[in-house]
């Protein structure tokens, strides 16, 4: 597994799977110029930080389950699922296909498609809710 793959995997584990919102941790993996396209919605770095903060208030736990990771040069593709337990004890599972672009050991872009696999239909936008 190459360095870029490891960086993306660690970012997913330490930011998404961590129940605590940690802006310093986010900054250690994501560039200030970060851009994310998710399900037709565009988030810049501050928007992404706000998105993660909101998710942490809505959820008790999120677990990233990696299904596939492929890397070439500055690009890492992941196919993963996020198992979500919300504060109201409801559960959802989201399938994610993502292409991460890296530069200078930071994630600078993510193009992502998500799909609600199970759970409340209202959770279909958890990948982009802000």
TrEMBL record:
It comes from the Bacteria. Keywords: Plasmid. This is Nuclear transport factor 2 family protein.
């Amino acid at each position: 597994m190459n360095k870029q793959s490891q960086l993306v995997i660690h970012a997913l584990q330490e930011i998404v799977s961590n129940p605590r919102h940690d802006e310093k941790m986010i900054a250690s993996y994501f560039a200030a110029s970060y851009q994310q396209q998710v399900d037709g919605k565009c988030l810049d770095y501050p928007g992404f930080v706000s998105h993660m903060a909101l998710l942490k208030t809505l959820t008790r736990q999120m677990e990233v389950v990696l299904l596939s990771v492929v890397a070439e040069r500055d690009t890492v593709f992941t196919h993963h699922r996020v198992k979500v337990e919300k504060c109201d004890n409801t559960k959802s599972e989201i399938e994610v296909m993502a292409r991460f672009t890296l530069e200078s050991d930071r994630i600078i872009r993510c193009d992502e498609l998500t799909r609600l696999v199970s759970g409340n239909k209202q959770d279909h936008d958890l990948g982009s809710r802000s």
